[in-house]
Structure formats: structure tokens, C-alpha cells
Amino acid sequence: MKIVALSLLCLFACGGKEPAPALPPAPAPAPTVPSQGHTGIAPEASGTVEERTFHSDALGVDKTYVVYLPIDYATNPDKKWPVFYYLHGITGDEHSWVKGGQLDKVADQLHLDAILVMPDGDDGFYADSDKPVDFDACMKDGTGLFAPQMKNPKKTCVKHSMYETYIVKDLLSDVDGHYHTNASGAARGIAGMSMGGLGAWELALRHPDLFAAAASHSGAIGLTYQAPHPYNAGHPNDVTFADAPKPGSTGNDLIDWVVGIYGHDKANWVAHDPERLIAKMSPGKPALYLDCGTEDEFHFFDQAAYVHDVLLSRHIDHAYFMGPGNHSFKFWAPREVESLKWLQEHVAKPS
User: Fold this and answer.
1) More confident residue, 60 or 41
2) Rounded to an integer, what distance in angstroms lies between the CA atom of residue 3 and that of residue 7?
3) DSSP-assigned letter for residue 323
4) How many CB atoms neighbour CB 154 within 10 A?
């Protein structure tokens, strides 16, 4: 998770400049959401955590996701539950939120009235990509993987790098087909940290019919944000954007990985940039939450503060928190309760 943020920051800092679109002056700052963190209270009962494996046509392989079923899921077979999708960061997997953040324990403490789904997104940024894939070579020795020494090829290699379609078509369909869900966009929320924070906003803003709310923990939600560093709060018109990288290796494997996903067409970067997508959204569709630590090693707080100002300028209601913490679960874990509550407040209730 840390390395991709650094590569993105370097990539954007080296790009060309484009003036940000003119925005009206930002109104007075919206109230921030305080950090309550874990309650420390042991729940009287606990939900069920299980794994499910299914075939993804988009990726051409089988994938596994972790599911949290609410405390009273089994005793209410006729109940239709909302679903919150939590996306991991780079080098993570479907176990990251439970192992690193104990998301299931936080859900128990809240007595969460929703199913949690934590998919394996590999290192694909939850975006469809036309980059070439050699499946046989990947299965043989990890060729084509990001940090192959950290990955099991049998678990990570795919035949097609179509991670957006994998989430919005294959995964949603399998979850709705196997669990007692309210299979409507009004009953779905999506969240993530780092790469997953970008992915959550990216997917929700590109598919507002599929997700009612999206939450980003320390995500690169200003995907093409270039400068300034530090961002001067209240001055969104001072921002410049990066151009898409030119063809050819940058000499940095991490940057090359990200470029391999989004390519060299500037229009594709813009089409996946949450800040740019905000201009096309209807207020509240989806409902948006964002946070970032003030000690974030990769200065994602600059992007977060800028996007916060953009939302204010466009009079789009949202939740925003900036507070002490870096780019790790030391910051994310105490914020999990806030994103869970935000999603629960902005999606349809169980029926």
C-alpha cells in the first residue's frame, strides 16, 4: 500500500501541467467527522466470517472473497440485507481488512445490519486495462505480477486484467446470487483504503446506479493531482493536473506498473479520476466519505483537502476527516467505525 502511493506521487509530480477548471469560491468548511475508533466493548454475540470461491469471467480465473455475515443473519432467512464492499490496498488481498483491521470485530461492536464483502483485487487498481497478459508465463514463475516474490501465482495470475468488470459484474452477481441480499444499488456501499480507497470512489462514481455510498480511507482520489504541495486550503483553482506519462519505461517498476494499468491516453486517466468524475455526479449519488492522516507519507492529505474543497464548491454534501496518522492501519483501524456507520446511514436498511 505504501509503495504504490509513492509511485503515484512521483508519477504525478513528473507530469505536465494543466490548469484546474475554474470553481466558485469555497463556502465555509463543512463540519468534520470526529474519530471515535474502536469502542473496546466486547459484543454479546458475533457475526460469521467465511470464504467463498467463484469463477470470474472478466478475469478468466476463480477468485475468493471473504464475507462477514451479520450476527442475526442465520436466524432471519427471509431478511434482505444491504452489502458493503471493502477493498484492500496494493500487495493486500481479501484477508487484509480482517487480519489488519479486524473489521469483523468492529462490525460486531456496531451490531452492523449489513453483509460485508472483502474481495481479492490483486494489484489491479479495480480498473479494466488492455495491458497484455501472458497467463502461462505468470503461472510458471510469476511473470507480469507486481512484486512477484510476494504473490502466489496460482492465486494471483489472471487471463484478463479486467478488475472493474470483475467487481461490478461478476462479484456483485455472485454475492447477490448466493446470499440474502437486497440486490439493488440503493442497498450497496463500497469502501477501501489506499488503492482500495481510490477504487471505491472510482467504481461508485463510474457506476452510481450500483452503489449508494462510497468511503475512501487515505485514497489517491485526486488521481491526476500534481501540485501544489502543500495544498493551500480554500484555493482549488491553484491546482494543476499531470499529463499521462509518455510511452517507454520510467525506470521505476512501481510507476511502470501503474502506467501499465491506466496506459498513456490522458482521457483514460481522466475517466478514472474521482475528482474529475465529481463534476458529472448528481449531488448525493453516491454519498461520499473521505479521510486521510496528516502524517501520510505520500501527501495524500493534499489530494483529500483539495477534493474536499471541490465538493464544498459544488455544494455536494459529504463527510470529511483529517487528523493525526500515517498511511497504515494505525490510522485506518480507528476510522473503520466511521465508514461503516456512514455507509449504514446512506444505504437502504434491511427489509
Assistant:
1) 60
2) 6
3) E
4) 10
Q: Is the pLDDT of residue 328 over 80?
A: yes
Which of 41-45, 217-221, 251-255 is predicted least confidently? 41-45
- Grid cell at residue 238: 491553484
List helix spans (H) across 75-231. Answer: 96-99, 103-110, 135-141, 153-156, 163-165, 172-178, 195-206
For CA atoms 114, 325, 289, 164, the dihedral sign is negative
Contact 180, 173 (CB under 8 A): no
The CA distances from residue 55 to 129, 182, 281, in Å, are 19, 22, 32
Question: What stretch of H or E contains 51?
Answer: strand 48-56
Which class for 125: exposed (0-12), middle (13-18), buried (19 or more C-beta within 10 A)?
A: buried
| pLDDT band for position 135 (cuts 50, 70, 90) | very high
Model pLDDT for residues 16-58, shown as the tens digit of each residue:
344 444 444 444 444 444 444 454 545 578 999 999 999 999 9
Those residues with Cβ within 8 angstroms of residue 316's Cβ, 6 or more apart along the chain or in another chain: 278, 281, 283, 284, 288
Q: Where are the domains of the chain?
A: 2-346
For 240, list phi and psi in degrees, rounded to 5: -120, 155
Crossing angle for the helix pair 329-346 and 103-110, to the nearest 10 degrees: 40
Pairing of strands 225-227, 240-241: antiparallel
Contact 270, 243 (CB under 8 A): no
Provide CATH code, domain 2-346: 3.40.50.1820
**What is the arithmetic mean of pLDDT over 98-110?**
97
Can you give the pTM of this predicted structure? 0.90
Write the CB contacts of 188 (distance below 8 Å, at least 6 apart in sequence).
Answer: 82, 83, 84, 85, 172, 210, 211, 212, 347
- The secondary structure of 278-319, three-state, reads HCCCECCECEEEEEEECCCCCCHHHHHHHHHHHHHHCCCCEE
Residue from 111, 154, 302, 312 nearest 219 by CA = 302
